[in-house]
Amino acid sequence: MRGFAHSRYVTILDQVVSSLSNFALVTLVANVTTPEEFGRFSLGYVVLLFFLGFQRSLVGEVLLVRFSGVGTRPRGVDDAAAGVSVSVGALAALVLGVCGVVAGGDVRVWIALLAAGPIIFAQDIARYVLIARKRSGDALVSDVVWVLAAVPVMVWLVTTDADAWLLVAVWVLGGGVAATVALIRARLVARPVHGVRWLAQNRDIAIRFSGEYASLNLSNTVVWFVLTGPIGVAGVAALRGASLLFSPLNTAFNAVRIAVVPELVRAEEPRRYRARLRETTLILGALGVGWGAAVLLLPDSWGVLVLGETWTAAAELRWPYAVQGVAMIAYTVLLAHFRARARHTASTAMRGTLAALTLVLPLLLAVMISTTGAAWGFAAAVALSVLIGGVWERRARRAQP
Q1: From CA 98, how far away is CA 184, in angstroms rounded?
Q2: Gap between the Cα atoms of 323 and 289, Å rounded
Q3: Rounded distance, CA 366 to CA 227, Å?
Q4: Which of 139, 146, 140 is closest to 172 using CA atoms?
Q5: Looking at per-residue confidence, does 20 or 341 come out higher?
Q6: Going by fewer Cβ within 10 Å, which terminus of the chain is more open, N or C?
Q7: Could you give the 3-state DSSP secondary structure of residue 8?
Q8: Is 38 helix (H, G, I), strand (E, B) or coil?
Q9: Phi, psi at residue 342, to the nearest 5°?
Q10: What is the rounded distance in angstroms from the CA atom of residue 378 to the CA atom of residue 388?
Q11: Distance of CA 70 to CAs 63, 73, 129, 132, 191, Å?
Q12: Residue 44 has pLDDT above 60, yes or no
């Protein structure tokens, strides 16, 4: 499908469609489980997302930043990158197995999540390869296949009161079909052995990007487990439920960033570069304000439809998550700018600040104000990290001749 249109808008649409299967999984699992069961599932899902994001920063972002603007791609670079990604997926499966033993609950859910690792990661890296090659249309086709193959079956299973593990299993199988489509379209063969050389050649930014992500999201992953102390598993479920209401917004923000970074890398003319940044800010602002208002005005009946029993507690946490969404507008624009202009020290400072504050503030406020305090802690962490990013950007502009 080489003739399929490629643009930042197609890339954004692909990222949005990609989120649909993930959003469906979490919302449908919430509907067939108790708050305690959903809390345990959420812990496993957070671990899976952590490793998925790690491979995106270690491999995917490097492909976008370093190889989006080149005319001739080095031979074998994509196969080697895919080898790294699949290896990270195997590691994720191993860690999920350990987490399942520690957290307990339905072992079948943990087995299904464990199986997701290599399959989901192969599909994801194929998408990044296609986007870097200016073939975002093919990436979109893969994600549409995933939604069509999995979501209708998952919805039907919910109507039959199926167990949660069946929903996860169908989601993974749909991802397997989508991965097959993406790998074929990209003519991609994962080569883990070659991945070692790929990492060595790109270690300057691969280590930095993955280090930023790991520090930020490790603190975010750890804080979910530690928060079970002051607020309990039900409190974690409420936080996850509230964050789920805003997850499409977060996905859209990530989609815009992934789409715009290659465009910014290719935009050598300053006027074009500034126009892209302004456009990005306007799009994110509209998304943030619009979705935040929609969630705040969401009727209880719709909330119960989305979150089931978890809605009652999650509904009280909508305001802090709405504020966090507004802060994420500036955060996303700054990060895209830092990536495209190779201001890696600034991005590390901003994301490092967010990592530290994400671990400290939610826990501190949870002890003081319980679950609501934890939600405000997450929002404050994003806002303060944006201030740090703004300070670095101001310093960079002053340093320019």
Answers
A1: 33
A2: 10
A3: 8
A4: 146
A5: 341
A6: C
A7: helix
A8: helix
A9: 55, 35
A10: 16
A11: 11, 6, 13, 10, 22
A12: yes
